[in-house]
Amino acid sequence: MIVKADGPSGRAKIRSDDPKHALGLIQYLRTIGYNAWIEDTNGNAIDEKALKMAMRSIMRMPDAARPRASGAGTFPGAIRLRL
User: Fold this and answer.
1) C-beta of residue 17 within 8 angstroms of C-beta of residue 1
2) Three-state secondary structure call for residue 74
3) How would residue 8 be classed by pLDDT, with cut points 50, 70 and 90?
4) Distance from CA of residue 44 to its chain's centroid?
């Protein structure tokens, strides 16, 4: 997913495979005056409320049924969820 934002000092575009990280980024960007949103890799907007609900349902799963994170690139902090 891609976090995009328009703000006082220009545009921002940040790629993140971690939904929790993406939600934290848009919250931070909004606090510093940016208009921020999340898109999928095809450019379609992702509903934040639906994303939060999906994350809650994953956290309620038994440990054995939860998707596992795996390394996803050359930069630290990025993970990929296998669903």
Assistant:
1) yes
2) coil
3) confident
4) 13
